[in-house]
Amino acid sequence: MTPKVSVVMAVKNEEKYIGSAIQSVLNQDVLGVELIVVDDGSSDSTTDIVKAIALADDRVVLEFNASSGKVSAFKFGYALAKGEYIALFAGDDIMPPGSLAKRLLAIQGMLSPSVLMSKIQVLSEDKKIDGTLIPRQRGKGNPSGASIMFDREAAKCLMDIPEELPNEDTWMDFCLTYLPMLNVSSHDEVSCLWRVHSGNSITIKDEFQTFNKKFSLRMNVIDEFLRKYRGVLAAERLAYLEKLACAEDCRRKGKWIQILFMRINLSDKIRFLAYSNGFLYKLRKSIRAI
Predict the structure, then answer these.
(1) In terms of pTM, does the model score above 0.85?
(2) How confident is the model over 235-267, as pLDDT tens digits?
(3) Measuring CA to CA, which residue among 289, 288, 280 is closest to residue 254?
(4) Are the CB atoms for 232 and 253 separated by under 8 Å?
(5) Is 201 part of a structural domain of the chain?
(6) Is the peptide bond before 113 cis (omega within 30 degrees of 0)?
(7) 230 & 139 share domain
(8) Per-residue burial over 63-97, b = 16 or more CB atoms within 10 Å of its CB, e = otherwise
(9) Are 142 and 163 found together in one domain?
């Protein structure tokens, strides 16, 4: 039977969490699910754990990244996927019971190319952030990789991720926000319990220099996105992205005063300001724990 949904999971050194992450996908009450796990060069026991699970359940397929990096691992897994709909997932998160079926039901009623955004909820030993819903607003979903489901037509854009980027989240966000051809909808179901821990790829608990380096790599998405889609963007969206490119250039140079007077959305302005120097970064950390 051709799978209805393919869940693609990129993993590297997830021995502490991979078993529960995989089981949370296999426990979903959806017929015709395949789980493609792509190992991106693990040096711990992750591979052995996945192999054992795959031997016991033929819905699990273990593959090894032909290149290296999280983005290439996801793209490699997607190339092998057979499902009509695609969902990405991480090897350290949990998929809530019943969430996949609810997402599938919702997206099947959408026009192609279709993308459904869901919410994520923080799972952490830190009681200050445990249980935090992202985003909190009703009727609004999160555009990151683990919180969206999309069909094959939408995947032509969403999975065309430049491998120069360190992760998939920023690319997904820009596609859903700016591309005119995608039919995007949201619902309030939680699709991912996001496990916040010291091994996350980027965290506000990092020192400024470390965070700044990682954030700068992620924000290369602006130039990459403009390079690929400049010709299909509406004039006002193109103009706004060029303002974001200017704001990012100022952020990297620590020119926070210039950012302050830029005509960009308040949420974008706050983000660029907060990550423009060590003092503002510390201020941001004191206000928000995540």
Answers:
(1) yes
(2) 999 999 999 999 999 999 999 999 999 999 999
(3) 280
(4) no
(5) no
(6) yes
(7) no
(8) bebeeebbbbbbbbbbeebebbbbbbbbbbbbbbe
(9) yes
